[in-house]
């Protein structure tokens, strides 16, 4: 789950390390950066299969559902009250 203030680096750096380690990844970019989120989504969809990478777009409700999924690891950057 990536924040609005560094939407590219805090989305793609953790993603790159997850893929390099042989994992699949689901990304949830910030809803406050819709154009950047859409570019990231299109870029990754053009280069990875849905079985390897999924980009989930949406607002706070989607973020809450996303973070409730049974992940082995979840990287979240943000404040405790928000997260």
TrEMBL record:
Q: Source organism's superkingdom? A: Bacteria
According to the UniProt record, one GO cellular component term is: cytoplasm
A GO biological process held by the record: aldehyde metabolic process
Per UniProt, the keywords (alphabetical) are: NAD, Oxidoreductase
Looking up InterPro entries in the UniProt record yields: Ald_DH/histidinol_DH, Ald_DH_N, Aldehyde_DH_dom, Aldehyde_DH_NAD(P)
Give the protein name, as stated in the record. Aldehyde dehydrogenase family protein
Q: Which organism is it from?
A: Acinetobacter baumannii (strain 1295743)
Keyword Coiled coil on entry: no
Q: Its family?
A: Belongs to the aldehyde dehydrogenase family.
| Domain Aldehyde dehydrogenase stretches | 2-83
Single GO term (MF) = aldehyde dehydrogenase (NAD+) activity
Q: Which residues form the signal peptide?
A: none
The record's annotation in PANTHER family points to: ALDEHYDE DEHYDROGENASE, ALDEHYDE DEHYDROGENASE ALDX-RELATED
């Amino acid at each position: 789950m990536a924040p609005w203030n560094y939407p590219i680096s805090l989305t793609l750096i953790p993603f790159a390390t997850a893929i390099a380690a042989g994992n699949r990844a689901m990304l949830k970019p910030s809803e406050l950066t819709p154009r950047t989120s859409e570019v990231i989504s299109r870029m990754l969809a053009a280069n990875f299969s849905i079985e390897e990478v999924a980009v989930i777009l949406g607002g706070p409700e989607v973020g809450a559902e996303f973070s409730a999924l049974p992940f082995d690891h979840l990287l979240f950057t943000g404040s405790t009250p928000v997260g």
